[in-house]
Amino acid sequence: MATNVPLQSLKAPGGKTNRRFTVLNVNGVRTAFGVLAVISSRDCSPAWYRVQLPVRPNGATGYVAANAVTVRAVRTRLDIDLSRRRVSFFKDGRLVLATTAGIGAPQTPTPTGRYYVNQRLRAADPSGPFGPGGIGISGFSPVLIDWAQDGPIAIHGTNDPSSVGRSVTHGCIRIENRLLRRLLRATETGSPVTIHA
Questions:
Q1: Which residues contact 57 (CB under 8 A, 6 or more apart)?
Q2: What is the DSSP secondary structure assignment for residue 102, as one 8-state letter?
Q3: What digits encode the pLDDT tens for the residues 90-114?
Q4: What's the CA gap between 141 and 131, in Å, rounded?
Q5: Which end of the chain has fewer CB atoms surrounding its CB within 10 Å, N or C?
């Protein structure tokens, strides 16, 4: 789901505002939400959506007016198994890609939980620390509260291939650049992301 206009997330349908969002986020990408439920009007058309929000604390939710957003189904999802250091990508319920990943170091762990893809970004410098780019996830580091943009988590490439498969990141998930390119092309914004131990 993506916003069409600047909007407010409410604590309850028609209730008080808990967050405000612009059409484009800080990276110039359309603000996206993960839909959890639909609240219908008397004629059975959608009136409100209960959504996951791309903000702290992890798991934050709110309600947005149905007429302020565009909703579309997604066919992809990501599963991140921290104990196996593995990223699995599914399309239409079928496993398409599975690969080893670098994960958060003990002092900067990757947060577990249910999230969604809120943006896909190409790196200005593909030889930099994020490789060719990253898939932004709606979760945030549990410890890096003073980090850039509040410490969001992403699946990204790397300029240090030896870090893939190790617990060395600041909470993000690192994979080989060639596979990150594939995921950037194939993963849909709004895709569910499950991170578990």
A1: 140
A2: B
A3: 999 999 999 999 999 999 999 999 9
A4: 20
A5: C
